[in-house]
Amino acid sequence: MRRRDYGDGSVANMPRKDGRWAASFYLPDGKRKYVYGRTRQEAKQKLEEAQRQAERGELVTPDKERLADYLLAWLEIKKLRLKRSSYLQYRAHITAVIAPVIGAYPVQKLTARVIQGFISALCEQGKAPGSIRMTYAILSQALKDAVKRHLIGQNPCQDIILPRDERDDEEELHALDAGQARLLLDAARGTDLEALVTVALATGLRRGELLALKWSDIDFERGILRVQRQLTWNAGEGYRETTPKTKGSRRSIVLADFALAALRRHKARQAERKLAAGAAWQEKNLVFCDTKGGYLCPQTLRRGFLRLLAEAGLPPMHFHALRHTSATLLIALGTPLNVVQAILGHTTARMTLRYLHALPAMREDAVSKLDTLFTVPVKQAFS
Q: What is the pLDDT of residue 369?
């Protein structure tokens, strides 16, 4: 009989309680790799497949690296393509959420059952669905990269059941109709938030984009506003002006006359306040700032916005609802979807569609058209 060459492997009926056959061979690094089968033929087939994977460099070898260590190392590489705010957010999720619970697991021993149990535990703790989805997204992407690097055979994050995305519930999203928007503007008239609310309704800008606007971004003669940055806040770093959220977010928007008028009034009031503040004024050239010219705190904005809603007789809602309102009203006025997408700075039209709401007037108009279609004589309806 021909003597086996080194690395050919062998198959034997090992004294295992489950009666399986074991096959093994030596890897190039000297470690021995075992595979198992219910029959001798199955073990042999698995041995041959493992040998082929080893030749292609695709065979996953045992590794005792802890998940927490792997995630932090992965994030340092990912950092090269992440915005500073995203990097800090990812790191916070890894160190505060993932590491304390499943961080000690060896990467190779992670299973779908472990991941699902972790996600379910977060739900039971009352964590917000958005936060849970962020945690899952980090895990899934990191382990997907681990598969590409041949650290693990497959991603255990596949087929994990996640909590319902609260954005899918229409009740969680608000959009004002035209009448309600006018009530809000009336309540804001003459207040510090008049121009901010007006521009938000006229442009659909994100809160961070509004709070980072500078007077140099507004061309009063041409009636154009340029979005070139956004304001973010990071723990330990404070406020930072960063690049817009996406490539499409860097954009120019034509301002309506009512928004330009509100900005002119706002600039005049700000000049008076700057003069009164004297040396205490922080010159950042911000359009929307605090009483000393510094960055306007989002919490201060939220409290002021809630007061305006109450004065207008409107229900409480997030400031972000003004972005939804702007998109919905533009569509209701017949603005093409691709134009609304460009105004909002969305990368895809699909994202823009999530900002549209069926206002009562829009529903009534649809029913009226349907009624006309089926009650008016055909010739007249299509003439």
A: 55
